[in-house]
Design goal:
The complex is a heterodimer of chains A (about 280) and B (about 525).
Chain A: H1 2-7, H2 11-33, H3 66-102, H4 104-119, H5 122-133, H6 137-148, H7 150-163, H8 167-174, H9 179-197, H10 199-215, H11 226-234, H12 242-275
Helix pairs in contact in A: 2-3, 2-12, 3-4, 3-6, 3-7, 3-9, 3-10, 4-7, 5-6, 6-10, 7-9, 8-9, 10-11, 10-12, 11-12
Chain B: H1 2-23, E1 33-34, E2 38-43, H2 58-64, E3 72-74, E4 82-84, E5 87-92, E6 98-103, H3 117-131, H4 135-138, E7 142-149, E8 152-157, H5 163-173, H6 179-182, E9 202-208, E10 212-217, E11 231-236, H7 240-248, E12 254-255, H8 262-268, E13 274-277, E14 285-292, H9 302-311, H10 314-321, E15 327-328, H11 352-361, E16 373-379, H12 384-398, E17 402-406, H13 411-420, E18 426-429, E19 432-433, H14 437-440, H15 464-475, H16 479-496, E20 499-505, E21 509-512, E22 515-516, E23 533-535
Parallel strand pairs in B: 2-11, 16-17, 16-18
Antiparallel strand pairs in B: 1-23, 3-4, 5-6, 6-8, 7-8, 9-10, 10-11, 12-21, 13-21, 14-18, 14-19, 14-20, 15-20, 22-23
Helix pairs in contact in B: 9-11, 15-16
The chains are: A mainly alpha (about 280), B alpha+beta (about 525).
């Protein structure tokens, strides 16, 4: 309880939490509020917002309900953001732990691979990966994770390097635990907190990357995505700017919310650490 | 940087005009053509090969038709819809084995050499027949060309070839290039492919990749007092939204080929000083077509294909996807074709109930999730409209219980997937009707076409009756009988639906009011612009 109270002490964290809660509510209620295919044609084309209360945010070029698309799009954004961040953290933590704990040649090889990935901009990597394999949700998640795991890997390695010298690790060695068991059961859990602190940044970046990929037409065309909505609205930017502005604002708020909430978590844990 | 210079100059010119108009009492804005001036045009692509004799496509013609001329050009009121260019007259023999062209006298190439029948013979035999994308079919039986004198070329065919087809092919397929430039070395690698030499009203002057093409006036042009313009500059603006802004800012004076998005036209038409022109593309009709892979057992059933045709609301497509700038289609020949079109074909009204009934009849009942079967749908990426129609078609199919999964590809990947790998169930394609079904339309239906030929029947469709009809029409010499056969062809295609024709559309030009003589022939955007002028 006290952790939650500490978390809610900063206004940024509250704002972030509210935005995130709203976003999750949107994603969870999408099928309830807007059952059926959000891409179904619901009314006349290019209806401006606030004209017809059955279509409060208007319709796009084919007459699809913008509000329904926005709700269903939040699912894609969240799903991709969380899945990509999870994948990146898992890969990064494993690679970092192995490199840090094993040391020597393994460390060198793994870290040089990490360096190689880090020299290529994450977005370009994702772009190349998706255009070769072909766009679908799973591929997009993989593509984003591919460019995002290097940060967690480096942080995890640095933590592991200090933890592996601790007494309890030496103790575990003495009782004859398998090195891999020590690495993943004793060392990794203790190295995780600073790695997890990266998650908010990775989620935010993943959501943006997904939107950018969809904007370039490399998203999954069978799903509504905010980036795809912005891209479609771009052709009618002068006559129906709301088609790009609405999903754009949603995107900005989401990334802001994720970031603020993440900051709040970091602050809370920092306070807890200094207290202990 | 050149873009800046041009805009600054036009701005200077604009402000000078403004000064003049305030300094002098305005008596009346007479629409007076003026000699000279530079026309700045938006170009959305940069074709690498600019030789229209090899690549007969609108992207190439848009630039090079001003430099390299054809034997004849399309016309609204000329005999057989043609007007003379390099040829003054054309006569087909009764046996269909020869066509005689009388050529224009006193024409010289841009490099100063005289134009003769040898150039025509060389272009036809060495380029149109073996190398040109469209000429390969039309001129396949061309055996030899006799040149009794410098101004006569007699095309000799090995098999009877309908004169009507040759005539209809002239505007797009008969670009004449100079023999003396092309006779040494490989034709495909000739440097003149990138800097064309022709007889046209404009000479190719300059190309800066990613920036502009510049054409300069040909002072020795055969047309009296032509061309009117001093220069044409094609400003490369690959982003479709920027053309409208450039027009409003007076950086360009003309945006052809719908460079201004359809959704912007309504707004643009109200901007003072700009006009929206829907004419001048009658000879370049694009067809919105659902290509079908008949290797899928469901789609091999004509009832399923008819159900899909009934599931598509063509009026909605015209109204929403094309914003009214299109017409609904009935069959493989567009409604605006004056020679071949017939409305007397089976039609498929928008009727979801009937579509569902047909699918039930075909034995594909709805499953518990409401779906009958799943399909892969590949919309061609070339136009916004083809992509949007793909989105619409997915919804239309969902309404009758067919689950279509959209697959988006870039152009090369789409062409490979559909026309080489056949990795599609349905595809959305934009084939072009070029004034005669034998040029690029029957190929969409005919069987026996090798894998990998783009914009042809790669759906595995085989109908011996239709194949026989196409073969018969290709050797029928009598114009009336041939036209009748193609009407029969339209009926059979509409009945059996090897592909589904949804709509026909053409392009829109937006120009400043000062540009004159726009859209005065059915292929205006790809004609020679010798009489285009800027008002003073």
């Amino acid at each position: 309880m006290s952790v939650l109270r500490r978390f809610l002490r900063t206004p940024e964290a509250i704002a972030g939490a509210i935005i995130l809660a709203a976003l999750f509510a949107m994603a969870l209620s999408a099928s309830l509020l807007f059952p059926g295919d959000p891409q179904a044609i619901a009314g006349p084309a290019l209806l401006p917002p606030f004209q017809d209360w059955s279509l409060p945010l208007g319709t796009d070029r084919l007459g699809r309900d913008v509000l329904a698309e926005l709700f269903h799009g939040s699912r894609t954004s969240l799903a991709v953001g969380l899945a990509a961040a999870t994948a990146a953290l898992v890969i990064g933590a494993i690679v970092g732990t192995l490199a840090g704990f094993a040391g020597g040649l393994v460390d060198e090889v793994l870290m040089r691979i990490t360096d190689a990935f880090q020299t290529v901009p994450g977005f370009l990597l994702a772009l190349a990966f998706v255009s070769v394999v072909g766009p679908s949700l799973g591929v997009v998640v993989m593509a984003i994770a591919l460019g995002a795991w290097t940060g967690p890997a480096r942080v995890a390695r640095a933590e592991v390097l200090s933890i592996r010298e601790r007494d309890y690790v030496a103790g575990a060695r003495v009782i004859g635990m398998h090195p891999l068991e020590i690495a993943f059961r004793e060392v990794l859990p203790n190295a995780l907190p600073p790695v997890l602190a990266l998650s908010s940044v990775i989620v935010a970046a993943a959501i943006l990357t997904e939107a950018a990929l969809s904007f370039l037409g490399l998203g999954d065309p069978n799903r509504v995505t905010w980036g795809g909505m912005i891209a479609e609205g771009r052709t009618v930017l002068r006559t129906a700017p709301f088609l790009s502005i609405i999903p754009g604002v949603a995107l900005v708020l989401t990334v802001l919310g994720v970031y603020l909430a993440g900051e709040g978590v970091v602050e809370t844990t920092a306070v807890r650490r200094s207290l202990s | 940087m050149s873009g800046f210079t041009i805009s600054r100059r036009t701005m200077l010119a604009g402000s000078a005009a403004l000064l003049a108009s305030t300094a002098m009492p305005v008596i009346g804005w007479a629409q007076t053509p003026k000699k000279g001036g530079r026309l700045v045009v938006a170009a959305d692509s940069e074709p690498r090969n600019l030789n229209p004799a090899i690549v007969a496509s609108n992207g190439v013609f848009f630039i090079s038709s001003k430099v390299v001329e054809t034997l004849a050009e399309a016309s609204f009121d000329g005999k057989d819809g043609l007007q003379p260019r390099l040829a003054l007259s054309w006569e087909g023999a009764a046996d269909g084995l020869s066509v005689t062209f009388k050529l224009r006298d006193g024409v010289i190439w841009h490099d100063g050499k005289p134009f003769t029948s040898a150039d025509v013979a060389f272009s036809a035999l060495q380029i149109w027949k073996p190398l040109q994308n469209l000429g390969r079919t039309v001129f396949k039986d061309l055996a030899a060309i006799d040149t009794p004198d410098d101004l006569t070329a007699v095309f000799k065919f090995a098999k009877p070839t309908p004169f009507q087809l040759i005539r209809n092919a002239l505007p797009a397929l008969s670009s004449v290039v100079p023999k003396h430039v092309y006779e040494t070395g490989k034709i495909e690698e000739n440097p003149a492919n990138n800097a064309p030499v022709g007889t046209g009203p404009f000479k190719f002057a300059e190309y800066k990749a990613g920036q502009y093409y510049r054409l300069a006036k040909n002072t020795d042009y055969w047309g009296k007092d032509e061309p009117w313009l001093d220069e044409i500059v094609y400003q490369v603006l690959p982003d479709r939204t920027s053309a409208a802004a450039a027009l409003e800012a007076e950086e360009i004076q003309l945006a052809a080929f719908s460079a201004v998005p359809l959704a912007d036209l309504d707004r643009i038409s109200k901007v003072p000083g700009l006009k929206v022109i829907t004419k001048g593309y009658e000879g370049l009709t694009y067809q919105l077509v659902v290509e079908i892979n008949h290797r899928r057992k469901e789609l091999a059933d004509v009832k399923v294909r008819q159900a899909i045709a009934h599931a598509i609301d063509k009026d909605f497509v015209v109204k929403t996807v094309f914003l009214g700038y299109a017409a609904t289609a009935t069959g493989p020949v567009p409604k605006n074709d004056p020679q071949f079109y017939t409305a007397d074909v089976p039609t498929y009204a928008f009727d979801v109930t009937k579509a569902n009934a047909l699918l039930d009849e075909a034995g594909y009942k709805k499953g518990p999730d409401g779906n009958r079967f799943s399909l892969k749908l590949l919309p061609a990426p070339y136009f916004n409209e083809t992509k949007q129609f793909g989105d619409y078609l997915r919804q239309a199919l969902a309404a009758v219980g067919i689950d279509a999964e959209l697959v988006n590809n870039d152009s090369p990947a789409h062409i490979k997937a559909v026309y080489t790998d056949h990795a599609f169930d349905l595809a959305v394609g934009p084939p072009v009707f070029r004034g005669d079904p034998a040029i690029s339309t029957t190929i969409l239906v005919q069987s026996g076409i090798p894998d990998g030929v783009p914009f042809s029947n790669q759906g595995g469709y085989k109908n011996e009756e239709l194949d026989a009809l196409i073969a018969k029409a290709s050797e029928t010499l009598d114009t009336a009988a041939r036209t009748e056969l193609y009407k029969e062809f339209q009926k059979k295609v509409a009945a059996d639906l090897p592909l589904i024709n949804v709509a026909e559309w053409s392009f829109i030009s937006v120009a400043r009011d000062t540009v004159g003589n726009i859209a005065n022939n059915p292929r205006w955007a790809v004609s020679n612009w010798a009489d285009t002028y800027l008002e003073s």
